[in-house]
Design brief:
The structure holds two protein chains of two kinds. Chain A is α+β, with helices and mostly antiparallel strands. Helix content of chain A is 46%, strand content 22%. Chain A has a seven-stranded antiparallel sheet with strand order 9-10-11-15-14-13-12. In chain A, a hairpin with a 5-residue loop joins strand 7 and strand 8. The longest helix of chain A has 36 residues, at 158-193. The model of chain A has no long low-confidence stretch (mean pLDDT 84). Chain B is an alpha+beta fold. Chain B contains five helices and three strands; from the N terminus they run H-H-E-H-H-E-E-H. Chain B has helices at residues 2-5, 11-19, 26-36, 45-57, 77-100, and strands spanning 24-25, 61-67, 70-75. Chain B has a three-stranded antiparallel sheet with strand order 1-3-2. In chain B, helix 2 (11-19) crosses helix 3 and helix 3 crosses helix 4. Classes of the chains: A alpha+beta, B alpha+beta.
Chain lengths: 468, 114
């Protein structure tokens, strides 16, 4: 048998009843609590013993203190005098244990106990949970705002979806203990005022918390899955790694300062400052890495197959990226074309909510007057999102609202059965029809930028290639 | 406010104050109260620590000596007043008991009159 054991324990900070019961059971099985850290509880192997544990909260204690304070030591002395030894500490929580059969309880007056607990909670647990909750809600609202304004881009991007899910889960994880504590405190206050004991904390919250961890695991798995089908997911994974590294570094700094016996104020200040600095540094490093990666083609925008360099009249050079991706619809399908220099570029982004494909057939170099083609296909997997995505395309030229009426471009629904679509929208300027269309088929939205108003045969060719 | 908080003293508060009429180490209070009350009232170390802190803040006791971690306390005038107020309150209770308890020949309730 090993001499020490480490376990990840999922106790709410104020759940002293649950913790006492758990430690008593562990001691009866021969494991005594030795140390509590942020990530695990450490037990050491002993003879199975019948120990009684009491969990108290000392508001002056702090995880930034290098030593227990004078008052804290006095408190420990009082407890020792009554037969209670300090087993472990966790921020304001002080855990005592005793071998005595009928020990004097550490707390003999419920109103005093309740007041001490609440004072300790107000110092650390309540403000920090509330702060993280507010931050998460802010981020959630921000993400939702971004998604509504840019649905096709955001929802086809697995990373953005994952980050939204992460913020939601974090918010719930912060909310559960907060609500649990407030309910417990109110009920206990009432009980104590009537002369009873503080109520026991309910275990229901613990179950919900476990469920949230399960959801997080599922979200991670889904993201990894989407990463394997599409490169942008890596950004989400990098984000998680970024935050994990940040947390690990900050805790290392805090513990190092504690070991070096820095004062509480110094430790607290340095830890907070380094946290802020590190978060900027790491985010900056990540952004720089991503930009480099995108340019080097690691993240999905694939490398061009060849380059073509021209020399402009003023002497400078311009390089064109040439792609040779297979496209479902090409200019050659629409008309006879006699030009050899085309780039066929295909970009695909997909998540479990929708997929977006962007196709471009560009001619190079400039000024050759060869026909060009551009279109985008959006496959909406969740029907409710259809109208939101369609709106984004219809509003494409809304940025021209400041232009005079004759110059503004807008999409208008027309009735062209040749498209065999649920809805057809054509671009207009004033009352003149133009060469851009938006089509709606089943769960598909297609935007096409033709090289001139399409003929009936060209429409038929497009329908055949793009509507399925 | 601290004053309001100690309007009525609980048993443990009462005996701690009683104990501190003479200078006493914080640690010894637990033993003393047990002896005073013949094991009837016991003050836990956590409760003792918190109450001593509250009493000092309310100016009902004062810290007289600090020898490292051993601190002694002594009751103040304010504390004596609180004790006396509590005593009088308890006496009122006993007087009312003797006056109104029926089996001791006290005045019966109105509804008992035939």
């Amino acid at each position: 048998m090993k001499a020490t054991k480490r376990r990840f324990e999922q106790f709410l900070f104020y759940d002293y009843t649950g913790i006492e019961r758990h430690l008593k059971r562990m001691a009866a099985r021969g494991w005594q609590l030795q140390k509590i850290t942020r990530f695990y509880w450490e037990y050491r192997r002993t003879e199975p013993q019948k120990l009684t544990y009491t969990v108290t909260y000392f508001s002056e204690a702090s995880e930034f203190n290098p030593y227990p304070t004078e008052n804290q030591q006095t408190f420990h002395e009082y407890c020792k005098n009554a037969g209670w030894d300090l087993a472990a500490e966790w921020a304001q929580m002080q855990i005592f244990c005793t071998e005595q059969e009928k020990p004097t309880p550490i707390e003999t007056e419920e109103s005093v106990k309740l007041k001490a607990i609440h004072r300790a909670m107000k110092k650390n647990f309540l403000p920090s949970s509330a702060l993280i909750l507010l931050l998460s809600i802010f981020q959630m609202v921000f993400q939702l705002h971004t998604i509504i304004n840019d649905p096709v881009d955001q929802l086809s991007n697995g990373a953005a979806l994952f980050m939204t899910a992460v913020w939601i889960i974090l918010a719930i994880q912060m909310l559960i203990p907060l609500i649990g504590y407030v309910v417990w405190y109110q009920k206990s206050k009432k009980a104590v005022s009537m002369g009873e004991t503080c109520i026991e904390s309910s275990s229901g919250y613990k179950n919900v918390s476990c469920f949230m961890w399960l959801l997080t695991a599922i979200a991670i798995v889904l993201t990894v899955f989407s990463v394997s089908t599409q490169h942008f997911g890596w950004v989400g994974i990098l984000g998680i790694i970024n935050v994990t590294v940040l947390i690990a570094l900050v805790f290392t700094i805090k513990n190092a300062l504690k070991r070096a016996r820095a004062s509480r104020r110094v430790n607290f200040t340095v830890t907070i400052v380094s946290c802020v600095i590190l978060s900027f540094v790491l985010t900056g490093a990540m952004a720089w890495g991503i930009v480099r990666g995108v340019n080097a083609g690691w993240f999905g925008n694939h490398q061009p197959d060849e380059n073509y360099t021209t020399i402009l009249p003023n002497g400078s050079t311009h390089t064109w990226d040439i792609y040779n991706d297979p496209l479902p619809l090409k200019i050659e399908d629409l008309q006879d074309v006699d030009y050899a220099h085309y780039s066929y570029e295909w970009t695909a982004r997909e998540s479990f909510l929708l997929a977006q494909f962007v196709a471009r057939q560009d001619s190079f170099p400039d000024g050759q007057n060869a026909p060009e083609l551009r279109y985008e296909i959006v496959k909406v997997k969740l029907p409710v999102l259809f109208d939101l995505c369609l709106k984004e395309y219809l509003d494409r030229y809304n940025y021209e609202w400041e232009k005079p009426e004759e110059d503004k471009r807008y999409f208008q629904q027309t009735d062209e059965p040749a498209w065999q679509a649920h809805a057809v929208y054509q671009l207009y300027r004033q009352d003149e029809a133009m060469n851009e269309y938006i089509l709606c088929w089943d769960n598909r939205i297609v935007y096409i930028n033709f090289d001139g108003i399409p003929t009936t045969e060209q429409i038929a060719a497009a329908v055949e290639k793009l509507s399925k | 406010m601290a004053r309001e908080k100690f309007q009525t003293l609980t048993e443990q508060m009462f005996y701690i104050l009683l104990c501190l009429q003479s200078e006493c180490y914080g640690m010894d209070i637990m033993e003393k109260v047990r002896a005073m009350t013949d094991e009837r009232v016991s003050v836990g170390p956590g409760t003792l620590y918190n109450l001593l802190e509250s009493f000092v803040k309310a100016d009902m006791i004062c810290e007289t000596k600090v020898e490292g971690r051993r601190r002694s306390y002594l009751i103040t005038d304010l504390g004596m007043q609180a004790l006396e107020t509590e005593y009088r309150r308890l006496m009122t209770l006993t007087v009312d008991y003797q006056q109104y308890v029926i089996s001791k020949g006290g005045i019966p309730d109105e509804s008992d009159k035939a």
